[in-house]
Amino acid sequence: MSGRSLRLRLLLAAAISVSLALVLAGFGLVALFDRHVERRVNAELHTFVNQIAAGVDFAVGGLPQLNRPLADPRFERPYGGLYWQIVDEAGDAQRSRSLWDYVLQLPAPAEESGRPQRYEIAGPQGKMLHVYERRIVFPAASGERTLRIVVAVDQHELDNARDEFVEDIAPALIILALVLVAAAWVQVNVGLKPLEAVRQGVAAIRTQRARRLEPDFPDEIMPLVNEVNELLDAQDRTVERARMRAADLAHGLKTPLTVLANDAEKLRRKGEGDMAREIEELVRAMQRHVDHELARVRVAAHSRRQAAAADLGKVLRGIVETIRRTPQGEKLSWEVSGAETSAIVAVDAHDLAEMLGNLVDNAAKWASGHVAIRIGREGGMAVATIRDDGPGVPAAATEALGRRGLRLDEAVAGTGLGLAIVRELLDAYGGSLTLANAPEGGLVAEMRLPAAAGR
C-alpha cells in the first residue's frame, strides 16, 4: 500500500487511536489500582490503630504503654516494614520493636481529636513510610490524656504492588491493542468493499460488460454512483450529438463534393487538365477529412456501446462473396479456411463487417493472383489471418502502416483511412492488428478479437 492509500490511512488512524486510548486506559487503571491499594492499606492500618487504642494502658508515672502485642509479626521484627508509635502530650514516645532505636518525626497534630490523618514521612533506613494517625482522648487517674497513635507501613510495599499490577496488565493491554487493530483492519476492509465494487463496476463499463453502475450500493456511496451514471449519460448524449452533427456534415458535403467532381471531369474534357487535377485533389482532401471525422465519431460511439456478439465466420463469408464478384476480385483465386466454423466475437456485427471489409478489400487491391484467409482461435481470442501475394511493404513502413491518410502508392484508389479505422475499432473493442510481410512474399494481416463471454 502506498502513502496515498485510503486503507493505509484508516489503519494508521485506527492504530494510533487504539494505542492512545489504551495508554490512557493503562494510566487510569494504574491510578485506580493505587487508590484501591491505598484504601485497603488505610483500612488495615485503621484496624491496627483501633487494636492499639484498645490495648493502651498507663504505667506508673503516667507513661502510656501497650499491654498486649499485636498479631502481625512484622511489628516485632526490627525494620520489618510495619511500625507503630504512641506519643503523649509531653512528647514522650512508645514505639514498636520493629522501629528499634528509631523515633518517627511526626508533623503537627490534627486539631480535631479522633479524625484520622494520612501522610508520608521518612522512616528507618531512609525508607518512606505511609502513615495513618489518630488523636484519641483516654481517661486516666490524673485526668484525660490525649495520645497520638501512629501506624506506618513501608511505601515501597504499595509501590511494589503497583509495579506488579503494571507488569500483569501491560501484556493484556498489548494483546488487546493487537486485537483491536486487527478488528479495525477487518472493519476498514469491509467498509471499503463498496468502493472496490464501484471500481469493478467502472471496469465493467470500460470493458463494455455493463452500461451503468447498479443502484445497490450503501447510502453513503450512492451519491458517487449517481454522479458516475449521470456522467456516463451526459457523455452518451454528447457522443450522440457529435455523431448526428458529423452525419449531417457528411450529408451536407456529399452533394457539393459530387458537383465539384463532375465539374473537374467537365474541365478535363474541355482540355483544362491542370485545373481538373487541382480540383480533384481538393475533393479528395476534403473527403479524407470528412471520412476522418466520421470514423472518429463512430469509434467513440461504439466504445460506449454495451458488448455485442457477431459470428466471425458468417460475416467473413458474406464479405468474401461480395468482394470476389468485383472486377478485381474476379481475377484472384481465393482460399478460405475455418469460415464454416462458428466463432462468436464480442463485437458489433456492423463494426466487424467494417474491419473485415477493409482488410479483405486491401488484400484484393494489392494481391497479384491469390488471397488466403484463415479463421482460428487462441485462448479467449478469435484470430482472422488475411494474406495476399502482392509486393508487400518496405520493412521500415510496417509500423507506420495504418496511420491516418498514409498511402504507400497513390496509384491505387483510396483515402488511406481504411487501416486506421480498423485499428481504432479494434482498440475500442480490446482487439489488435498485426501487419507483417510474409516470407514467401505479400502482406499478412492478423486481426485478434475477444471472443464473446461463454462462447
Describe the protein's architecture and organization.
The protein is of the alpha+beta class and 455 residues long. It contains eight helices and 14 strands. The strands form four sheets. The protein has a five-stranded antiparallel sheet. The chain has a five-stranded mixed sheet with strand order 9-11-12-14-13, covered by helices on one side. A two-stranded antiparallel ribbon has the order 1-2. The protein is rod-shaped and about 160 Å long.
Descriptive labels:
455 residues; alpha+beta; 5-stranded antiparallel beta sheet; 5-stranded mixed beta sheet; 14 strands; 50% helix; rod-shaped
Decide which structural class fits the backbone: alpha+beta
Distance between the termini: 37 Å
Low-confidence stretches: 404-416
Strand elements, count? 14
Proportion of β residues? 15-25%
Q: Nearest-angstrom radius of gyration? A: 50 Å
Summarize the structure.
By secondary structure, the protein is α+β, with helices and mostly antiparallel strands. It contains 8 helices and 14 strands.
